[in-house]
Amino acid sequence: MLVWSRAESFECPEVQMAIQRMMMVTIQVRDFDSMVTWYRDVLGLKVLALEEDEFCLLRAPHGSATIGLATDHPDRIPERPGVGWSPSFAVDDFDAFVAGLRSRGVTFDATEEGADEGYRLVRVRDPEGNAVGIAAG
């Protein structure tokens, strides 16, 4: 069973300055408006900043890490969606949240996993096919 401790620290003596926290995950998207709508209205993320048709910064209502949706580097959009990133969001009532996603017709990537290892996780697909994890928090 994998156990993470918030008190654990991982130090690398060769590095003079250590990373302090995750700031954001940026996703280059094809259809900006539909992606903003999905992350805001389906997953319930709060829009922190919006630059029309170019960049949107979002955060979970009780979180600190942010996700950026961007169109400013179309050369960074892979031909195949979902390559190289998969953010996961924690929810308090896992069963109710998953049921809500199902009722909204959200596409699930696979069945629930991790219950036998001490966690619960499902992956859904955003409108462009990118995997997004939803975990019991």
Report on the architecture of this protein.
By secondary structure, the protein is α/β, with parallel strands linked by helices. The chain contains 2 helices and 8 strands; from the N terminus they run E-H-E-E-E-E-H-E-E-E. The strands form 2 sheets. Strands 1-4-3-2 form a 4-stranded mixed beta sheet, covered by helices on one side. A 4-stranded mixed beta sheet has the order 5-8-7-6, covered by helices on one side. A hairpin with a 6-residue loop joins strand 3 and strand 4 (66-70). Residues 1-5 and 15-19 have low confidence and may be disordered.
Key features of this structure:
disordered N terminus; 8 strands; 2,3-Dihydroxybiphenyl 1,2-Dioxygenase, domain 1; 2 helices; 137 residues
Q: What's the CATH topology name?
A: 2,3-Dihydroxybiphenyl 1,2-Dioxygenase, domain 1
Helix residue percentage = 10-25%
| Count of distinct structural domains | 1
Number of strands: 8
Main β-sheet description: 4 strands, mixed
- The shape is globular
Q: What CATH architecture label applies?
A: Roll
Uncertain residue ranges: 1-5, 15-19
What structural class is derived from the secondary structure elements?
alpha/beta
Q: What series of H and E elements makes up the topology? A: EHEEEEHEEE
Major sheet strand order: 1-4-3-2
Per-chain topology:
Layout: E1 24-28, H1 32-42, E2 46-51, E3 55-59, E4 66-70, E5 88-91, H2 94-103, E6 107-108, E7 121-125, E8 131-136
Parallel strand pairs: 1-4, 5-8
Antiparallel strand pairs: 2-3, 3-4, 6-7, 7-8
Question: What's this entry about, in short?
Answer:
With 137 residues, this protein is an alpha/beta fold.
